[in-house]
Amino acid sequence: METKLIAANPAETETECLVVFALDHGSNKKPEPKLSPANATIEQAAADLISSGEVSGKAFETVLLHRPQGLKAKRLLVVGCGKKKDYSHTELRKAAGTALRALKPKLIQSCAFVVPELPTGAEDAVRSIVEGAYVADFDPDTYRTDRKDFSTKEITVIAPQNSEVAKLQRAAEQARIIGQSQNFTRELVNEPSNRLTPTMLADRARQMCESMGLKCEIMGPEKIKAMKMGAFWSVAQGSDEEPRLIVIRYEPGVTDGKPAPEKPVLGLVGKGITFDTGGISIKPADGMEKMKYDMAGGAAMIGTMRAIAQLKPRIKVIGIVCATENMPSGKAQKPGDVQIAMSGKAIEIINTDAEGRLVLADGLHYARTLGCTHLIDAATLTGACVVALGHANAGVFSNNEDAYQHFTRALERSGEKFWRMPLDQEYLDQIRSNIADIMNTGGRWGGASTAAVFLKEFVEDTPWIHLDIAGTAWIEDSKSWIAKGPSGIGVRSIIEWVRSYDGGV
Ligand code: BES
Ligand code: MN
Ligand code: ZN
To answer: Can you give the pTM of this predicted structure?
Structure first.
């Protein structure tokens, strides 16, 4: 998909379809739809749709009109953004996506969005439209033999004639990078485990790094054992597929401004379980096919690094993905086994299905040995997080208020939904072991937090954010703005978190 930004009169713009947004200014009883921005010619063309009540401004309603009078466009699509009082860039992002997904099956492969008013400004509006359009363009039907490529070929963003075009063009360009990177993550998450083994995931990461100019180092079983990553290896040992430790480095170039010495080094650590059977503590058959997406945290980090390479923040970023399968076999670890992590901590394995925290324990410790001053991890870590928050919010945990503030600012920009969860001492008491330092599970209650405090033992005092995306990495029911399947959750927020350490540019 190509993206163009122009400053023009939308009525005079030739396009397959002009997309214009409508807001409901009315009360609960009576809708009062108004187009945004106000434009006499477009209002005239849509007058009958509005007076008949077909256009109400209701969120994500779409009404298509052919040969709109007085416009150069072949069609006019009016998309509702909901009540004016609830309107923000989040609604606009979804409304833009809704427009694209309404046009896609009609084989309308190019359209032009009229940038609406937005309380946070035109740059934010352009960014939301472009991000929303890219996210909407993704469909997960990779292996359908009757797959039709309905992908949108081109979107044009029409800014007001008096706007600062260069600034808006930059916003559109950055939004394209972010949207494409989120989709890159979604492609990886969508792949089944026979088509994306740890080795293949590492190959995909390496290819991405080559095309984006990132340094990529990939390590196999011998190196993992030599580095004494006993927790990571304990999961990998049960599989016939070799594990991979993927390390991606981004360093700002001279032209991008030298990093000041006090600048942080950010470590992005992802859980890359390409299939989670549970191991010897095997999962039930029902729904096990879903466990191909247990590498969504790792894929989020690879997608984030892809965006970072192009957005070029003036800080160092290191992406680390611990990729392995979790399989039962004669070589697999067993409940009761004791494993020594890279940090030296002894872990008693109670349940081999609590494998994500094991691979992350070594990934996080390794990141610290590489000099990371701030850490963020993303993982489809616990079913307990899904029980607590459902599919609406992902969980966020942090041991540091400043890092967490950076993350909440990132959320304001990304529009993704995360809810903070606790990390108290009491949860740590739940995972004390009689034979070793800690156990890898902490009983029935508070499972998202016992998993998080387990990780905390390995980050120690390094400022750290932990994202549990088990309930949000896979969308069960399609929405008007996004397909069902892999969501790419985390990518946009982690990108913004990284940028927040560079003044949020
Ligand atoms: N990958 C799962 C968590 C998960 C559950 C992800 C549902 C996506 C959807 C993780 O490795 C796991 O199996 N966790 C166990 C931990 C338990 C054994 C302490 C769980 O949540 O049941
Ligand atoms: Mn598991
Ligand atoms: Zn898992």
So the answer is: 0.97
